[in-house]
Amino acid sequence: MELDIVELSRLQFALTAMYHFLFVPLTLGLSIVIAIMETVYVMTRRPIWRQMTKFWGLLFGINFAIGVATGITMEFQFGMNWSYFSHYVGDIFGAPLALEGLMAFFLEATFVGLFFFGWDKLSRIGHLAVTWLVAIGSNFSALWILIANGWMQNPVGAVFNPDTMRMEMTSFFDVMFNPVAQAKFVHTVSAGYVTAAVFVLGVSAWYLLKGRHVELARRSITVAASFGLASALSVVILGDESGYSATLNQKMKLAAIEGMWESEPAPAAFTVFGVPDQEARETKYAVHIPYVMGLIGTRSLTTDIPGINDLLDVAQERVRSGIIAYDALMTIRKDRGNTSADVRATFEEHGNDLGYAFLLKRYVDDPRDASEAQIAQAANDTLPTVWPLFWSFRLMVALGFSFIAVMAYFFWRSSFRGQVYPRWALWGAVAVIPTPWIAAELGWFVAEYGRQPWTVDGVLPTALSVSHLSVQDLLLTLVGFIAFYTVLFIVEMGLMLKYIRKGPFEDVEETEKWMAKHQHQLRTHDGKGPFAPLSEEQLP
Amino acid sequence: MILHELIDYDLLRIIWWALLGVLLIGFALTDGFDMGVGALLPFVAKTDAERRVVINTVGPVWEGNQVWFILGGGAIFAAWPPLYAVSFSGFYLAMFIILAALIVRPVAFKFRSKRQNVRWRKSWDWALFAGGAVPALIFGVAVGNVLQGVPFELTPDLFARYEGAFYAKFAGLLNPFALLVGVMSLAMLVTHGAAWISFKAEGVVATRARSMGTISGLVTIGGYVLAGLWLAYGISGYALAENIVPDGPSNPLYSDVVRTSSWLSVYGERPWIALAPGLGLLGMIMVVLGLRAGREGSTLLWSKLGIFGAISSVGLTMFPFILPSSLDPRSSLTVWDSSSSHQTLFIMLVATLIFMPIILTYTAWVYRVLWGKVTEADVTDNHSAY
Q: What are A384-410's pLDDT values in tens digits?
């Protein structure tokens, strides 16, 4: 990879976005988890639930700070590094980002302060409302960001305006209810919930292993396992929904993920294993499961799924059509306002392929001068490198299923085995803490790398989206971000571990007072009083 | 959708120009005192307890305040995409420094008091200082450059190119006039922060804040007057040539721009805009007097009015220009040729009209819940305090 402006801008975006997304999923999920815990507190008045809310809320706060800080970079990076992208699609893309600020981020950020500072200043219900507003705010935030991202994958509700040389919105409704965006939203927030569930489960398991904060840990595991099981099921099912939308909109991405070189007659098989070979255009040692891909991709047994080779032929047609559109555009621009109806009609007909002509700009200044070889090359560029997509996707799916297994197991132990967990399972829960983050990063990689060579699918090539910067500019900021983010990461992990080790702040006096007062109401599930010591088998 | 035809395109553009001002002013009024407090932190508070008091005067609200900045970025992107595309990539390294400062700040707030370690806390105190002072300075430098024109040009594809690359471009930003505006902006926000501290804290901290605020208030007044004179006599302005189409397509290259002797010539055509600098100066003077006299609430209010006046004076003086180009005046971005489409402006306006009142309501409610002085006891008793 040579270090030109485009590659450096991509690298910077990938690093800063993936780094940002280390903190986002936990924010999304943990905000809901603490809201659930506080709801239980308000309903039962048991102090232990308030301690849980405060403890997980503290960890939430540490994570939230870096999530917000690194999110600022994302909001401004489009203008800094992707100036032409910002100009070309800002009319559509900017709106969801601004709406995110208006509707979601303001809510979340204004109330998060009150979450920490308002315990003594608000009534119980008032504080609970604040906590839920933080949770709703952060989840709404994800909605708008994914509407923006979904539009890059499936640019609906917009049309090119030759006068302003950019895409302009024709239907806000279409942009907002873009099926790709909606599928991505539910998939992404579910992934966030799984992340939080695995995190809470793992930390609580560690407490049980150490015999510390047992009451808090066992209740936390129950919340995490039930919330996590529902989320893990939904992340897989809704991920499948994303796959379905991908076939409608991004056939090439799907074919690349599948390593499917030739179109297959319906119903297509799913390749579980294989070694994609880009040069030879084949997937070696492939192991197939019949019918599955057809079902995921088309929800039918009779619809064909096009393979890479056929899609490349289509792309070549579209490049040629794009050149016609480009020629018409140049005439329209030259005649400004007095363009003949013919030329306008030609542009109307071929305008949808204009982006494909821009693919040629990497090779030739004026796409109309492109040679046959360059046209073929541009068409070829519409295929991203297959093997990273093929493998990332499979690893992500495998992890997705593993979350269902883990959560189902703990849910079963928590609901039907008296909250008693074997040590090996607890150690297992600690060990799998990093896996949801890996799955989430892989998911983003598949979504964004799979969209290449476009920033906006079929509309604007990545190579054209950048700013007029120098390599030094980009190197300096890249090194700056890496240095900066590394320090932040070390500091944040240090604090996280410190506060996990320290454990919750237990207000023993308050708890005992409450227990004494409510003793007549309290019976644990084995019928003993609340102050009875744990039996041998209940101790981990 | 035909609904957007309800409001004419040119009117929508004016509304969005005003909203751009509202967002910038909202940012300066709210996050402005956070930055001022950060910049004052090492000087008004000496002991750890004092510093925690100062930090906690903004502790619960800085996060919401900062959203004004993020929303400002989003709104510029949505309503003025060419401005977003040209300015952020043009002020590249300056933007990076602002980002770095704004990333450090939230982390510093959250993490500073989480360890009982002198070096740890001192380092984060300096991070808070830099996170407040550096953006306050650079925002002013940016405004100073915008007033002089920025060296960019648009290609026929509307790709923005800049003269000079890398540090040459950055060094070019640091010219004397821009630095003057930068210092003035820093002083203004420091004064605002001082007014906030004297409003929220007591005792020695508040006393120190008042005396530092008096000095920075005087610097603000001096800087503002000097910059005004410089603008009147030393810097040439821009004007649109005759062919203005206020509801035409957003293509800056469609309109011609000429250089004029001074921006301030518009005060002859529209004398009423002199109200803005007038209000700015009045506010700044009243702040200094208020700090001297130890008035709290009214001083903060005057500080807000002063900032409101100062920022609107820049916008009104430049109207209809948003980002003039010194390299190729024709590429200059104006209200009439660098907005979003009619439809996008309309939708964003509807969303703003719905949500801005809601935001202002709940923000006001949060400030009310947190009303009152922050004392050392508050900080030590509350486990959630910073």
A: 888 898 889 889 989 999 999 999 999
Nearest to A80 among B76, B88, B383 (CB): B88
DSSP A365: S
pLDDT tens-digit readout, B248-297: 888 888 888 888 888 888 888 889 999 999 999 999 999 999 999 888 88
Tell me the shortest Cα–Cα distance from B260 to chain A, in angstroms. Answer: 27
| DSSP strands (E only) in A232-370 | 270-277, 282-289
Distance CA A101, CA B68 (A): 8
The confidence band for A507, taking pLDDT boundaries of 50, 70 and 90, is: low
Distance from CA of B289 to the nearest CA of A (A): 32
Any chain A CB within 8 A of the CB of B123? no
Give the nearest partner residue to A90 out of B59, B70, B84, using CB atoms.
Answer: B84
Is the separation of the CB atoms in B180 and B143 below 8 Å? no
A141 in contact with B, Cβ within 8 Å: no
E strands present in chain B: 152-154, 160-162, 237-240, 257-260, 321-323, 333-334
Given CB atoms, is B251 within the 8 Å cutoff of chain A? Answer: yes
Report d(CA A474, CA A11) in Å as an integer.
Answer: 10
Taking only the tens place, the pLDDT of each residue in A56-110 is 999 999 899 888 888 888 989 999 999 999 999 999 999 999 999 889 988 888 8
The answer to whether A521 and A61 have CB atoms below 8 angstroms apart is no
Which one has a higher pLDDT value, A322 or A117? A322
Selecting from A79, A98, A111 the residue whose C-beta is nearest the C-beta of B85 gives A79
Q: Do A91 and B63 touch (CB under 8 A)?
A: no
pLDDT digits (tens, 9 = 90+) for B291-323: 998 888 899 999 999 999 999 999 999 989 999
The set of residues, in sequence order, having a beta carbon less than 8 Å from that of B22 and lying 6+ positions away, is: none
Q: Which amino acid appears at position A256 of this protein?
A: A
Is it the case that residue A349 has pLDDT exceeding 80?
A: yes
Distance set, CA A149 to CA A178, B303, B347 (Å): 10, 41, 19
Q: Does the ipTM surpass 0.85?
A: yes
DSSP secondary structure letter of residue A95: H
Question: Do the chains contact at A117 and B382, CB–CB below 8 Å?
Answer: yes
Extract the tokens encoding A273. 């294993």
CB contact residues (below 8 A), chain A span 301-360, against chain B: 333
Task: Measure A63 CA to nearest chain B CA, in Å.
Answer: 10
Least confident range of A104-108, A219-223, A256-260, A346-350: A256-260
Q: How many CB pairs under 8 A join A and B?
A: 264
